[in-house]
Amino acid sequence: MDGDVILRTEGLTKHYGGVHALQGANFELRAGEHVAIMGDNGAGKSTFVRQITAVERRTAGKIWFGGKEVDFENPLEAREAGIETVFQNLALADDLDVPSNLFLGRERIRFNLGPFSILDRRSMRTATVAALEKTAVKIPNLSNTIRNMSGGQRQCVAIARTAAFASKLVIMDEPTAALGVQETAQVENIIRTLKEHGEPLILISHNMRQVFDLVDRIVVFRRGRIVANLRKEETSGQDVVAYITGAKTGPEYADAA
Amino acid sequence: MSANSHGVGGVAFDPKRRSWPPEANVFIALVAITAVFELLNRFDGGSFLFNMRANVPGLFNQARLDIMILQVAITGIIALGVTQVIILGGIDLSSGSVVGATAMIVMSFAQTALVNGNPNPKAIFGEWAMDLPVIVPIMVGLACGLAAGLINGTLIAYTGIPPFIATLGMMVSARGVARWWSNGQPVSFPTESFANLANGDLLGTLTFGLVHWPGQNPAIVFIALAILFHLILKFTIYGKHTYAIGSNEDAARMSGIKVKSHKVLVYAIAGMCAAVAAIMLTSKNLTAQAGMGVMYELDAIAMAVIGGVSLSGGRGSILGTVLGAAIFSVIISGFTSIRLDAYYQEMVKGAIIVGAVVLDQWRQRRSAARG
After folding, report:
1. A156-182 pLDDT, tens per residue?
2. Which of chain A's ends, N or C, has fewer CB atoms near its CB within 10 Å?
3. Across residues B313-341, what is the average pLDDT?
4. Total of domains in chain A
5. Rounded Cα–Cα distance for residues B304 and B93 (Å)
């Protein structure tokens, strides 16, 4: 194995009442590595991500991030630690412009007056331009509200948000599910840019072509459990489908089936 | 770096598609309505805005302008708070009743001991509450508004009940407080310093006698608070988070905004605005009655809505509400100037409120279709 482990989970478990959405997930991500999480609807992919980013509180299990054990209280703590997430349902405020969305919840301030702190609008705007350039995102007019933008542009803003801060890990939950062909290509280009910058990524996707194009490793979830951990070069689309549907289970996960 | 540079390769920036600020539409409507009334008055040989009398100096009809601003100043102060609540994605139906309750309580701490040499016939408390410094009733009033706002906000943020229901409850209960406070009796005879809050010459004091505008203190307070809240909404974290929560509450929460405590804060500010209105109202009228402020909440909401504040949250501004208040005032004064009955005023007011919401919906659909 090469590189340092950025993220490690051990026995990560989430129950919603009697529903076992996630069961004992052991997962590892190394520096600069891009990993895809695949699986059927309800397999536990998004649940897994929500535990890492502390959008929900896990039932059991441990998480190590950047070499030390972490226990984030809320999404903001996870963000501040360097985990940036692009959520499936685009956590953007429609009526705000691009810089406001990029810095939502983490506004830069000029004078600290508690809740009435004065915003540092110029610095946020400059940082927005830099973040958009870093991710090669093209937005026609920064002062426009998100409402007036296309699905692709919105997704790009959501992704640029991850670049505006010094992130150590980017998680994308089906970033291209609602996009057209061109817009998907644009988002995929951004992901390649992240790879070039050596930023690790967890990508949840249903798109087999996209996954084989972009990532190094594929982790398959089925009914709340991890059932396979495959290097891209050693597997094929058919193989992955077999794991997703339950026709096959990785030998090291035999007890999970 | 210009904004246009980001159009390269992506969708080109088209200035024609830039959204026209909604306040501009409201302003045009204001000018148009004013022009219509001016025209109607001219047919009659008079003027709506301009001074037609030779024996009075000035270009404008100053007396009418004073009345126009004063008649919306007190509901306008309420509307400033209500605007923030609506931008947050909520609604506040309680402000009128909070005005009533606050008015009664404030006046009880603003009474004077002797009226024409006799003991105050409307005294609520004993000697200890007579002739208190003016700061006491002001603080008591603000505390009342704050308490009502905190209850509203806490109910909405922490029990998850719809703002409509929470503030409807407060509307009924606060009116109950107003009636119970003195068993339905009016509370009257304030100290001179309290009466001066609304009827004095605040502008004269502030400018050391340079400019005078006596009796217009509610208008001065309205304008000052409007400027203050406009700046706060535009330039502070408070404003940004208010718009963010009204726009997409889930996104705000996922971004780490403390949605619950922020909601409490916004409702608390709205409650304090209602309290300021109550202080101005009682001081202006020199008396407090349990029925004060009835329907004020609807006038306040109407001003915001006419001013382009979207009832679905996230959109609108204080400037819009001020323009909305101006339209409101022009309509009332306009109808009076052409000697139309108050009954018609109410009917037209209702139609304008509905029209403003229809317009807002239409704008929203159009912008969604373009996106």
Report:
1. 888 888 777 767 899 998 888 878 888
2. N
3. 92
4. 1
5. 13
In a domain, A208, yes or no: yes
Longest dimension (CA), chain B: 84
* The pairing of beta strand A201-204 with beta strand A217-222: unpaired
CATH number at residue A32: 3.40.50.300
Residue A48 has pLDDT above 70, yes or no: yes
Both structure tokens of B270: 């709205």
Could you tell me which residue, A194 or A214, shows the higher pLDDT? A214
Q: Over the stretch A11-24, which tens digit does the pLDDT of each residue have?
A: 999 999 888 899 99
Q: What is the mean pLDDT of residues A228-254?
A: 87
Instruction: Give dist(CA A183, CA A178) in Å, integer.
Output: 9
Is the CA virtual torsion A195, A89, B260, B324 positive or negative?
A: positive
Which of A55, A113, A140 lies closest to B11 in CB terms? A140
Which has the closest alpha carbon to A95: B291, B224, B245? Answer: B245
Please name the fold of domain B21-47+59-364.
ABC transporter involved in vitamin B12 uptake, BtuC (1.10.3470)
Structural domain containing residue A235: 5-94+168-256
Q: Which two tokens stand for residue A115?
A: 């809740």
In a domain, A139, yes or no: no
Q: Where are the domains of chain B?
A: 21-47+59-364
The Cβ of residue A57 has, within 10 Å, a number of other Cβ atoms equal to 12
Average of per-residue pLDDT across B110-122: 87
- The share of chain B scoring above pLDDT 90, in percent, equals 61
A46 at interface of B, judged by CB pairs closer than 8 A: no
In a domain, A80, yes or no: yes
Contact A104 B236 (CB under 8 A): no
User: Does A157 map to a domain?
Assistant: no
Half-sphere exposure at residue B33, Cβ-oriented, CA atoms within 13 angstroms: 22
Q: What is the pLDDT of residues B88-114, one digit of tens each?
A: 999 999 999 999 999 999 999 999 988
Q: In chain A, which residue's Cα lies nearest the Cα of B7?
A: A140
